[in-house]
Amino acid sequence: MSGEKTSEKIEKEKNLLIVVLDVNPLQRIVKEEAKILTQCLDSTIVFANAHLMQASNNQLAVMACHGHGATFLYPSDKTNDIRQIDGQYEKFTEVERTVRQQIQLFVNQIPLDASLNGESLISGALSMALCYISRISQDKEGDEKFYSRILVITASNDSTMQYMNYMNIFFTAQKMGVILDVCSLDQELTLLQQGCDITGGNYLKVPQLNGLLQYLLWVFLPDSSVRSKLVLPPPVEVDYRAACFCHQELVDIGYVCSVCLSIFCKFSPICTTCHTVFKMPGPIPMKMKKKKKNIDITH
Protein backbone atom coordinates (compact mmCIF):
# COMPACT_ATOMS: atom_id res chain seq x y z
CA MET A 1 0.00 0.00 0.00
CA SER A 2 2.81 2.42 0.85
CA GLY A 3 4.38 1.83 -2.58
CA GLU A 4 1.10 2.63 -4.32
CA LYS A 5 0.73 5.86 -2.32
CA THR A 6 4.27 6.88 -3.19
CA SER A 7 3.77 6.28 -6.91
CA GLU A 8 0.45 8.14 -6.82
CA LYS A 9 2.16 11.08 -5.12
CA ILE A 10 4.88 11.15 -7.77
CA GLU A 11 2.30 11.14 -10.55
CA LYS A 12 0.72 14.26 -9.07
CA GLU A 13 4.04 16.11 -9.05
CA LYS A 14 5.51 17.92 -12.04
CA ASN A 15 9.16 18.98 -11.94
CA LEU A 16 10.44 21.46 -14.51
CA LEU A 17 14.18 22.00 -14.96
CA ILE A 18 15.50 24.83 -17.12
CA VAL A 19 19.21 24.67 -17.97
CA VAL A 20 20.88 27.92 -19.10
CA LEU A 21 24.19 27.26 -20.86
CA ASP A 22 26.56 30.18 -21.46
CA VAL A 23 28.14 29.74 -24.92
CA ASN A 24 29.91 33.10 -25.12
CA PRO A 25 33.11 32.56 -27.17
CA LEU A 26 34.87 35.28 -25.14
CA GLN A 27 34.84 33.24 -21.93
CA ARG A 28 38.42 32.84 -20.74
CA ILE A 29 38.51 29.06 -20.63
CA VAL A 30 36.81 28.85 -24.04
CA LYS A 31 39.38 31.18 -25.63
CA GLU A 32 42.21 29.09 -24.19
CA GLU A 33 40.72 25.76 -25.30
CA ALA A 34 37.77 25.72 -27.70
CA LYS A 35 36.86 22.08 -27.02
CA ILE A 36 35.80 23.05 -23.47
CA LEU A 37 32.51 24.30 -24.90
CA THR A 38 31.87 20.93 -26.57
CA GLN A 39 32.67 19.14 -23.32
CA CYS A 40 30.24 21.35 -21.41
CA LEU A 41 27.54 20.71 -24.02
CA ASP A 42 28.01 16.94 -23.79
CA SER A 43 27.80 17.00 -20.00
CA THR A 44 24.73 19.25 -20.11
CA ILE A 45 22.88 16.91 -22.46
CA VAL A 46 23.60 13.86 -20.28
CA PHE A 47 22.51 15.79 -17.19
CA ALA A 48 19.29 16.93 -18.88
CA ASN A 49 18.41 13.40 -19.94
CA ALA A 50 19.13 12.16 -16.41
CA HIS A 51 16.50 14.59 -15.15
CA LEU A 52 13.95 13.21 -17.61
CA MET A 53 14.88 9.67 -16.60
CA GLN A 54 14.04 10.27 -12.94
CA ALA A 55 10.28 10.47 -13.53
CA SER A 56 8.02 10.13 -16.56
CA ASN A 57 6.29 13.47 -15.90
CA ASN A 58 9.49 15.49 -15.45
CA GLN A 59 9.77 18.41 -17.86
CA LEU A 60 12.85 19.98 -19.38
CA ALA A 61 13.88 23.17 -21.14
CA VAL A 62 17.37 24.08 -22.35
CA MET A 63 18.50 27.64 -23.10
CA ALA A 64 21.69 29.23 -24.41
CA CYS A 65 23.01 32.75 -24.08
CA HIS A 66 25.98 34.84 -25.18
CA GLY A 67 26.84 38.52 -25.37
CA HIS A 68 24.22 39.29 -28.04
CA GLY A 69 21.14 37.40 -26.90
CA ALA A 70 19.47 34.37 -25.36
CA THR A 71 17.18 31.72 -26.80
CA PHE A 72 15.45 28.42 -26.09
CA LEU A 73 17.16 25.38 -27.61
CA TYR A 74 14.68 22.80 -26.34
CA PRO A 75 11.76 22.44 -26.71
CA SER A 76 11.89 23.70 -30.26
CA ASP A 77 9.14 24.72 -32.68
CA LYS A 78 10.79 22.60 -35.34
CA THR A 79 9.73 18.98 -34.90
CA ASN A 80 11.97 16.24 -36.24
CA ASP A 81 11.10 12.65 -37.03
CA ILE A 82 13.00 10.86 -34.27
CA ARG A 83 13.65 7.14 -34.57
CA GLN A 84 15.26 4.86 -32.05
CA ILE A 85 19.03 4.50 -32.47
CA ASP A 86 20.92 1.62 -30.86
CA GLY A 87 18.13 1.06 -28.36
CA GLN A 88 18.23 4.63 -27.05
CA TYR A 89 14.99 6.06 -25.70
CA GLU A 90 13.44 8.33 -28.35
CA LYS A 91 13.02 11.22 -25.92
CA PHE A 92 16.76 11.25 -25.16
CA THR A 93 17.57 11.22 -28.86
CA GLU A 94 15.18 14.10 -29.44
CA VAL A 95 16.78 16.21 -26.69
CA GLU A 96 20.32 15.54 -27.92
CA ARG A 97 19.62 16.21 -31.61
CA THR A 98 17.51 19.30 -31.01
CA VAL A 99 19.95 20.91 -28.58
CA ARG A 100 22.97 20.29 -30.82
CA GLN A 101 21.22 21.59 -33.95
CA GLN A 102 19.76 24.68 -32.28
CA ILE A 103 22.95 25.64 -30.48
CA GLN A 104 24.88 25.52 -33.74
CA LEU A 105 22.34 27.84 -35.35
CA PHE A 106 22.41 30.14 -32.32
CA VAL A 107 26.20 30.48 -32.28
CA ASN A 108 26.30 31.07 -36.05
CA GLN A 109 23.86 33.97 -35.61
CA ILE A 110 26.47 36.04 -33.78
CA PRO A 111 27.04 39.03 -36.12
CA LEU A 112 30.59 39.05 -37.47
CA ASP A 113 30.59 42.81 -38.09
CA ALA A 114 29.42 43.68 -34.56
CA SER A 115 31.79 44.19 -31.64
CA LEU A 116 31.98 41.11 -29.46
CA ASN A 117 30.44 41.49 -26.02
CA GLY A 118 32.35 39.84 -23.21
CA GLU A 119 29.39 40.00 -20.83
CA SER A 120 26.86 37.26 -21.42
CA LEU A 121 23.19 38.16 -21.11
CA ILE A 122 22.50 35.71 -18.31
CA SER A 123 19.95 38.04 -16.72
CA GLY A 124 18.00 38.10 -19.99
CA ALA A 125 18.00 34.30 -20.14
CA LEU A 126 16.79 34.11 -16.53
CA SER A 127 13.96 36.55 -17.29
CA MET A 128 12.84 34.41 -20.22
CA ALA A 129 13.05 31.31 -18.03
CA LEU A 130 10.81 32.85 -15.36
CA CYS A 131 8.25 33.82 -18.02
CA TYR A 132 8.31 30.26 -19.36
CA ILE A 133 7.82 28.85 -15.85
CA SER A 134 4.87 31.18 -15.26
CA ARG A 135 3.21 30.01 -18.46
CA ILE A 136 3.80 26.30 -17.80
CA SER A 137 2.54 26.58 -14.22
CA GLN A 138 -0.84 27.77 -15.50
CA ASP A 139 -1.32 24.48 -17.35
CA LYS A 140 -1.19 22.29 -14.25
CA GLU A 141 -4.25 20.24 -13.39
CA GLY A 142 -6.31 20.52 -10.20
CA ASP A 143 -4.34 19.18 -7.23
CA GLU A 144 -1.18 18.62 -9.27
CA LYS A 145 1.93 20.09 -7.60
CA PHE A 146 4.36 22.04 -9.74
CA TYR A 147 8.03 22.53 -8.88
CA SER A 148 10.55 24.41 -10.98
CA ARG A 149 14.24 25.28 -10.84
CA ILE A 150 16.84 26.92 -13.05
CA LEU A 151 20.46 25.86 -13.45
CA VAL A 152 23.00 28.32 -14.88
CA ILE A 153 26.25 26.88 -16.27
CA THR A 154 28.74 29.63 -17.07
CA ALA A 155 32.41 30.57 -17.17
CA SER A 156 31.80 34.31 -17.63
CA ASN A 157 32.82 37.02 -15.19
CA ASP A 158 30.52 38.49 -12.57
CA SER A 159 28.62 41.26 -14.40
CA THR A 160 27.81 44.16 -12.10
CA MET A 161 26.35 46.00 -15.11
CA GLN A 162 23.34 43.69 -14.76
CA TYR A 163 23.04 44.21 -10.99
CA MET A 164 19.50 45.63 -10.93
CA ASN A 165 18.29 43.03 -13.42
CA TYR A 166 19.73 40.29 -11.24
CA MET A 167 18.12 41.63 -8.06
CA ASN A 168 14.70 41.86 -9.72
CA ILE A 169 15.08 38.31 -11.03
CA PHE A 170 16.23 36.89 -7.68
CA PHE A 171 13.32 38.29 -5.70
CA THR A 172 10.82 37.41 -8.43
CA ALA A 173 12.09 33.83 -8.41
CA GLN A 174 11.84 33.76 -4.62
CA LYS A 175 8.22 34.92 -4.76
CA MET A 176 7.41 32.33 -7.45
CA GLY A 177 9.10 29.56 -5.47
CA VAL A 178 11.68 28.95 -8.21
CA ILE A 179 15.08 27.62 -7.12
CA LEU A 180 18.15 29.08 -8.81
CA ASP A 181 21.27 26.90 -9.03
CA VAL A 182 24.59 28.12 -10.42
CA CYS A 183 27.53 26.08 -11.67
CA SER A 184 30.59 28.29 -12.22
CA LEU A 185 33.30 26.84 -14.43
CA ASP A 186 35.98 29.48 -13.93
CA GLN A 187 35.73 31.87 -10.97
CA GLU A 188 33.62 32.97 -8.02
CA LEU A 189 30.43 34.83 -9.01
CA THR A 190 29.35 37.10 -6.15
CA LEU A 191 26.02 38.26 -7.57
CA LEU A 192 24.88 34.80 -8.60
CA GLN A 193 25.89 33.53 -5.15
CA GLN A 194 23.39 35.99 -3.74
CA GLY A 195 20.71 34.64 -6.08
CA CYS A 196 21.33 31.07 -4.93
CA ASP A 197 21.13 32.13 -1.30
CA ILE A 198 17.93 34.14 -1.79
CA THR A 199 16.10 31.36 -3.66
CA GLY A 200 17.49 28.45 -1.63
CA GLY A 201 19.55 27.00 -4.47
CA ASN A 202 23.03 25.50 -4.65
CA TYR A 203 26.15 27.27 -5.86
CA LEU A 204 29.23 25.38 -7.00
CA LYS A 205 32.53 26.47 -8.50
CA VAL A 206 33.75 23.34 -10.27
CA PRO A 207 37.26 22.45 -9.06
CA GLN A 208 38.04 20.34 -12.15
CA LEU A 209 36.35 20.66 -15.53
CA ASN A 210 37.09 17.04 -16.33
CA GLY A 211 34.61 16.04 -13.64
CA LEU A 212 31.85 18.44 -14.70
CA LEU A 213 29.29 15.71 -15.36
CA GLN A 214 29.92 14.09 -11.97
CA TYR A 215 29.45 17.43 -10.20
CA LEU A 216 26.23 18.13 -12.11
CA LEU A 217 24.75 14.75 -11.23
CA TRP A 218 25.86 14.91 -7.59
CA VAL A 219 25.00 18.49 -6.70
CA PHE A 220 22.27 19.69 -9.07
CA LEU A 221 20.29 16.61 -10.14
CA PRO A 222 18.47 16.01 -6.80
CA ASP A 223 15.40 18.18 -6.28
CA SER A 224 14.82 20.33 -3.21
CA SER A 225 13.04 17.61 -1.22
CA VAL A 226 15.99 15.24 -1.61
CA ARG A 227 18.63 17.90 -1.00
CA SER A 228 17.32 18.50 2.49
CA LYS A 229 18.26 14.91 3.34
CA LEU A 230 21.81 15.17 1.97
CA VAL A 231 24.78 15.75 4.25
CA LEU A 232 26.35 18.95 2.94
CA PRO A 233 29.68 20.55 3.91
CA PRO A 234 29.72 23.62 6.19
CA PRO A 235 28.36 26.84 4.65
CA VAL A 236 30.58 29.59 3.27
CA GLU A 237 30.17 33.34 3.51
CA VAL A 238 28.27 35.12 0.73
CA ASP A 239 29.25 38.69 -0.10
CA TYR A 240 26.02 40.71 0.08
CA ARG A 241 27.48 44.07 -0.86
CA ALA A 242 25.68 46.05 -3.54
CA ALA A 243 27.25 47.31 -6.77
CA CYS A 244 27.43 51.06 -7.26
CA PHE A 245 25.77 52.49 -10.36
CA CYS A 246 28.66 54.80 -11.20
CA HIS A 247 31.63 52.40 -11.40
CA GLN A 248 29.82 49.03 -11.20
CA GLU A 249 31.95 47.96 -8.23
CA LEU A 250 30.90 46.36 -4.95
CA VAL A 251 30.94 48.87 -2.10
CA ASP A 252 30.95 48.58 1.70
CA ILE A 253 29.33 52.00 2.27
CA GLY A 254 27.34 53.74 -0.45
CA TYR A 255 24.98 56.65 -1.04
CA VAL A 256 21.41 55.61 -1.89
CA CYS A 257 19.05 57.83 -3.87
CA SER A 258 15.80 58.22 -1.91
CA VAL A 259 13.78 58.43 -5.14
CA CYS A 260 14.97 55.55 -7.38
CA LEU A 261 17.18 53.68 -4.84
CA SER A 262 20.26 53.92 -7.06
CA ILE A 263 23.53 53.29 -5.22
CA PHE A 264 26.68 55.40 -5.57
CA CYS A 265 30.11 55.01 -4.03
CA LYS A 266 30.66 58.79 -3.79
CA PHE A 267 28.42 61.72 -2.92
CA SER A 268 26.73 63.44 -5.87
CA PRO A 269 24.23 66.33 -5.61
CA ILE A 270 22.39 64.98 -8.67
CA CYS A 271 21.29 61.37 -9.15
CA THR A 272 22.64 60.23 -12.50
CA THR A 273 19.84 57.67 -12.82
CA CYS A 274 16.67 59.71 -12.21
CA HIS A 275 18.31 63.18 -12.29
CA THR A 276 16.85 64.19 -8.95
CA VAL A 277 18.56 67.25 -7.44
CA PHE A 278 19.23 66.84 -3.72
CA LYS A 279 19.51 69.43 -1.03
CA MET A 280 22.32 68.89 1.42
CA PRO A 281 23.30 66.44 2.78
CA GLY A 282 22.35 64.63 -0.46
CA PRO A 283 21.78 60.89 -0.91
CA ILE A 284 21.46 58.86 2.27
CA PRO A 285 24.65 56.99 3.21
CA MET A 286 23.93 53.33 3.85
CA LYS A 287 26.19 50.55 5.05
CA MET A 288 25.99 47.44 2.90
CA LYS A 289 25.84 43.94 4.32
CA LYS A 290 29.08 42.25 3.50
CA LYS A 291 28.75 38.70 4.71
CA LYS A 292 26.01 36.17 5.09
CA LYS A 293 25.98 32.42 5.63
CA ASN A 294 25.11 30.16 2.73
CA ILE A 295 25.35 26.48 1.88
CA ASP A 296 28.57 25.53 0.15
CA ILE A 297 29.14 22.23 -1.55
CA THR A 298 32.41 22.93 -3.30
CA HIS A 299 34.57 20.90 -0.92
UniProtKB/TrEMBL annotation:
The keyword DNA damage applies. It is found in: Nucleus. Keywords: DNA damage, DNA repair, Metal-binding, Nucleus, Transcription, Transcription regulation, Zinc, Zinc-finger. InterPro entries: TFIIH_Tfb4/GTF2H3 (IPR004600), vWFA_dom_sf (IPR036465). GO terms for cellular component: transcription factor TFIIH core complex; transcription factor TFIIH holo complex. The keyword Magnesium does not apply. One of its GO terms (molecular function) is zinc ion binding. Pfam families: Tfb4 (PF03850). One of its GO terms (biological process) is nucleotide-excision repair. Its main location: nucleus. Part of a TFIID-containing RNA polymerase II pre-initiation complex that is composed of TBP and at least GTF2A1, GTF2A2, GTF2E1, GTF2E2, GTF2F1, GTF2H2, GTF2H3, GTF2H4, GTF2H5, GTF2B, TCEA1, ERCC2, ERCC3, TAF1, TAF2, TAF3, TAF4, TAF5, TAF6, TAF7, TAF8, TAF9, TAF10, TAF11, TAF12 and TAF13. Component of the 7-subunit TFIIH core complex composed of XPB/ERCC3, XPD/ERCC2, GTF2H1, GTF2H2, GTF2H3, GTF2H4 and GTF2H5, which is active in NER. Belongs to the TFB4 family. Component of the general transcription and DNA repair factor IIH (TFIIH) core complex, which is involved in general and transcription-coupled nucleotide excision repair (NER) of damaged DNA and, when complexed to CAK, in RNA transcription by RNA polymerase II. In NER, TFIIH acts by opening DNA around the lesion to allow the excision of the damaged oligonucleotide and its replacement by a new DNA fragment. In transcription, TFIIH has an essential role in transcription initiation. This is General transcription factor IIH subunit 3. It comes from Vespula pensylvanica (Western yellow jacket).
